[in-house]
């Protein structure tokens, strides 16, 4: 078995579907293990992957850990196998903590986001030299390359990447919901307002990618004395920029706390 996925939740499933649909690995070479045995069995039956129990992990060449960080210390005893390489998506959990609990330096730390479900994840990746020479880093790069872009990132920046990019879709969702509420407040039908908000995020993202700085797009939309600058004045007075910055700071700090709990 080339890969065992432990924790087949939102991310584990996105990865399973991404690597199999892109032909990176056939489902038959992947095993699934989840505390929710029914879910794992159903996913295995649907995709052709194998449904595993903990003793089966000894046959895995590599193990992807995608459980919540608080679960890690509870299961690290049976996760630890002699000849396996590990890849962890867990927020905050450092390669040092992974090494200490799993008893190997063949550990790769990744930080994707939920856009992995549509092949548009931004995934940070880092690993100690031992994982690189064992081919684990390259293996993980291929896995996460199947669900989006992969960025090499020094480990000391992982919690910042988590607080901005991995948590980012939730911030965007709050923005979209509030924008739609504004539309509804001014009389637009709810369903239309939601559709407009989602499409605005997509199209604005495309527009931003063609510009060197986000402020350029803002300046192009805001006509002198027009509607947009009147709206922007309210956002500035409400401290929206500061709130977003502080959200990233808080999420980054929370990542560090989650990591400390698993040391
Ligand atoms: N959801 C997101 O947007 C992102 C999540 N992450 C990280 O990825 C990890 C997984 O996140 P999600 O997929 O969102 O979580 P999730 O809650 O959807 O999935 C976790 C899975 O682990 C299973 N599980 C729980 N205890 C277990 C055990 N003892 N043995 C085996 N399986 C067990 C659960 O049944 C569940 O299916 C977390 O550590 C999170 O920090 C990283 C980046 C983004
Ligand atoms: O909220 C969390 O802890 C996870 C990690 C980044 C996105 N979701």
TrEMBL record:
Family per similarity comment: Belongs to the pyrroline-5-carboxylate reductase family.
Gene behind this protein: proC
Function statement: Catalyzes the reduction of 1-pyrroline-5-carboxylate (PCA) to L-proline.
Domain annotation Pyrroline-5-carboxylate reductase catalytic N-terminal: ranges: 2-92
Name this protein carries in UniProt: Pyrroline-5-carboxylate reductase
Catalysed reactions, as listed in the record: L-proline + NADP(+) = (S)-1-pyrroline-5-carboxylate + NADPH + 2 H(+); L-proline + NAD(+) = (S)-1-pyrroline-5-carboxylate + NADH + 2 H(+)
InterPro entries: 6-PGluconate_DH-like_C_sf (IPR008927), NAD(P)-bd_dom_sf (IPR036291), P5C_Rdtase_cat_N (IPR028939), P5CR-like_CS (IPR053790), P5CR_dimer (IPR029036), Pyrroline-COOH_reductase (IPR000304)
Keywords annotated in UniProt: Amino-acid biosynthesis, Cytoplasm, NADP, Oxidoreductase, Proline biosynthesis
Broad class of where this protein is predominantly found: cytoplasm
Pathway membership: Amino-acid biosynthesis; L-proline biosynthesis; L-proline from L-glutamate 5-semialdehyde: step 1/1
EC number(s) recorded for this UniProt protein: 1.5.1.2
Organism: Deinococcus metallilatus
Any one Gene Ontology BP term: L-proline biosynthetic process
UniProt enzyme class: oxidoreductase
Pyrroline-5-carboxylate reductase dimerisation domain mapped to chain residues: 155-258
GO terms of molecular function: pyrroline-5-carboxylate reductase activity
GO cellular component terms given for this protein: cytoplasm
